[in-house]
Write a structure and sequence with these properties.
Layout lengths: L1 H18 L5 E7 L2 E7 L4 H13 L7 E5 L3 E4 L21 E2 L13 E4 L9 E2 L3 E4 L6 H9 L9 H9 L12 E7 L1 H8 L16 E4 L2 H11 L2
Length: about 230
């Protein structure tokens, strides 16, 4: 009887461990300039869950990266961009709601992060659907010092973040103003290629850059968690 109970317990433990899902959800963004895979942060659950919901609905499929600025970011997710005419101004389309800001000191605008666009609302609530991926640039200590005194209005950048902004790059003046909720884990060269395209006076690519956004399967997510040591 004891052996049977022990066997049952071990079988249940093994089954539970095997059935345990991935720790993180990943999404794939496909474009004519390549693909990238993004890990959505669990530390920003409202933004994570909203992005998953919209991806499942297929809202992003066929939309454009409608605003690109080299050494800064590429922005997309405007539903109006799906059927936009050449030269049409974009960036005002939305889904009729906002997502409360989820600022975290540990999440900042290093190169390759996914963040939520927004308007100038005082609560800094995010657009329900528009997002951007940072390309950024590298900074020196001197440039970071100047940034703290000017655009950051005296706010100090933590030393460990400084090292990343100097070695990897990013867009530090956006920190604590726009919610960061994911990061590119593979395919950052896609962002570089799109950021470098020819664009018009509104920073819209002259040739449309369409996207398709899909969720990775549980198996794929578990594999990436293992590869990334998460």
């Amino acid at each position: 009887m004891r052996k049977l109970l022990l066997f049952t317990f071990l079988l249940a433990a093994f089954t539970s461990a095997f059935a345990k899902g991935p720790k993180n959800q990943y999404v794939r963004i496909q474009t004519s300039y390549g693909d990238c895979i993004i890990r959505l942060y669990n530390e920003t659950p409202k933004h994570r869950d909203n992005f998953i919901k919209l991806t499942k609905q297929g809202l992003y499929n066929g939309t454009l990266f409608h605003r690109v600025i080299q050494n800064f970011m590429i922005q997309g997710g405007d539903p109006d961009s799906r059927k936009a005419k050449p030269g049409q101004e974009l960036g005002n389309g939305d889904v009729g709601y906002t997502v409360p800001a989820e600022f975290r000191d540990s999440l900042f605008h290093k190169r390759g992060v996914l963040a939520a666009a927004r308007d100038d609302n005082p609560a800094k609530a995010s657009s329900g659907c528009q997002f951007y991926i940072t390309e950024g640039r590298r900074f020196t200590d001197g440039k970071l010092d100047t940034l703290e005194q000017t655009r950051l209005k005296g706010r100090k950048i933590p030393a460990w973040q400084r090292e990343i902004y100097k070695s990897v790059g990013g867009v530090p003046h956006l920190d604590q103003n726009y919610t960061v909720f994911g990061e590119v884990v593979t395919g950052i060269d896609m962002v570089d290629r799109i950021a470098a395209v020819k664009k018009d006076a509104r920073d819209r690519p002259v040739e449309d850059v369409h996207m398709t956004v899909t969720l990775l399967s549980k198996k794929e997510c578990k594999q990436l968690d293992k590869i990334l040591g998460l």
